[in-house]
Amino acid sequence: MDVSGILDEHTSRFKSVQVDRLIPVDHDLGLLSSFDINMLNESKLNAGPKKRDAYLLELSREGAQLLVNELFSQPTTVDEDSVYAMLPKITTTLPREKPLPKEKPMTRWEKFAKLKGIESRKKSRLVFDEASGEYRPRFGYKGVNNDDQKPWLIEVPGNADVNADMYQERRDEKKERIEKNTRRMTRNAEERMAVERG
């Protein structure tokens, strides 16, 4: 029984994996890209919308086929259900709009924490306030940290002046803490600028 006709009919339904180009196509497998500098056929491009689209579709298929052929020529690893190609390093240099950002130098606290092995733990923004029975912000407007700033009664220490305004003292202490923190932030910014300048 001659089955050559059936085989020919079957293979004719599939495109060939062999693609010929007058000028060899450059590939950058690290970017999964191909660069084809062969001339386009102007007569096919101007032959009408249907023929033009068919021609462009065929060019795209051939370009993808060339890329796939190159991928399968790379070393591969086989997993339980897949085959993975090991891609080489990128060879095409792509332009950037801006230069790569420089690594920020560590602040004094970050250096100290690294030296002592202190790991920062992220705290939740809201905390449960047992007095009011609801969740409130940890800092800022209606924050629980402001409760001790506005107590209705402040005990005056024995060695303090009887006429001293304890509320004003608390406000001054808070203001001093804020100024100290601002000075530290400014100092860290100046040190960072000095390191970046070299």
Protein architecture, described:
The chain has 198 residues and is of the alpha+beta class. 39% of the residues lie in helices and 10% in strands. It is built from five helices and six strands; from the N terminus they run H-E-E-H-H-E-E-H-E-E-H. It has helices spanning 4-12, 42-45, 49-72, 108-116, 166-197; strands at 26-28, 33-35, 76-78, 83-85, 126-129, 134-137. The protein has a two-stranded antiparallel sheet with strand order 1-2. Strand 3 (76-78) and strand 4 (83-85) form a beta hairpin. The mean pLDDT is 83.
Question: What keywords describe this structure?
Answer:
5 helices; alpha+beta; single chain; 198 residues; elongated; two-stranded antiparallel ribbon
